[in-house]
Amino acid sequence: MPTNGTSTSRSAPGDMSGVFEQLSKGESVTAGLRKVDPSSQTHKNPSLRAGATVPTRSDSQSSAASTAGRGKSPVPGTKPKPSSMRTKKPARKELDGNKWIIENYDSPPEGHLEIDASINQSILISRCAKTTIRVLNKANAISLDNCTNVSLIIDSLVSAVDVIKCPNFALQVLGTLPTILLDQVDGATIYLGSESLGTELFTSKCAAVNVNLPGRTHDDDYRECPLPEQVRSVVRNGVLVSEI
């Protein structure tokens, strides 16, 4: 800290008196500046502008390196097109080894399809609409995926009918069927025969599913039995119990 009677060569921080003193000099402020020779002025010499390069800052290089290390931002996924805007593929009915492939049928002109299956053959039905499919003889298994307004009539199966995302689905069993699996089905009507009353039904995320049971005699009408959509769960003696 300076003693009394002495002066410092530099103004104290925040003291603006020196700045105002320089500005009050007017044109004499620039008297001490050196003039640039015309041969060194870039606006008068195009050759100097062509050879001039902008130096790369070290912080720009580090910023670019850090950006490369982070990688690119993830691209948002594209939403699937509505079914009305998708390209319609040709209908297909083909036996590939031991698997029947039925797909892309929409209101066929003949009204329905027939599949002459055997006990070792499975059937895959996908992306069909407004179609009735008749499976003759006893097949192994049937899977339906992403179909709308499809009706299935079968004789008998060895294992199961597996239905996924098929609104307004209908099934009629004329013979025996061990298992029916419904997953994300909104609206289904199932007709069981006298030989298929032992069929087990498993549902997940389904709504408006009705099972029609035959009457006591051939003259009696079918009885419609809706499947429950709500489940009540309670804790009893430390165990979670679910009830309809």
Would you give an account of this structure?
The structure is a single chain. With 244 residues, the chain is mostly beta strands. It is built from 3 helices and 16 strands. It has helices spanning 17-23, 46-51, 58-70, and strands spanning 92-96, 99-103, 112-116, 122-126, 129-139, 141-145, 148-157, 160-164, 169-173, 179-183, 186-191, 200-204, 207-213, 223-226, 232-236, 239-243. The strands form 3 sheets. A 7-stranded mixed sheet has the order 1-2-4-6-8-10-12, with no helix packed on it. Strands 3-5-7-9-11-13-14 form a 7-stranded mixed sheet, with no helix packed on it. A hairpin with a 2-residue loop joins strand 1 and strand 2 (99-103). The longest helix is centred in the first third of the chain and has 13 residues, at 58-70. The protein is elongated, with a radius of gyration of 42 Å. The model is unreliable at 3-9 (pLDDT under 50).
| CA-atom Rg in angstroms | 42 Å
Instruction: Please give the largest β-sheet.
Output: 7 strands, mixed
General form: elongated
- Strand-pairing-aware structural class: mainly beta
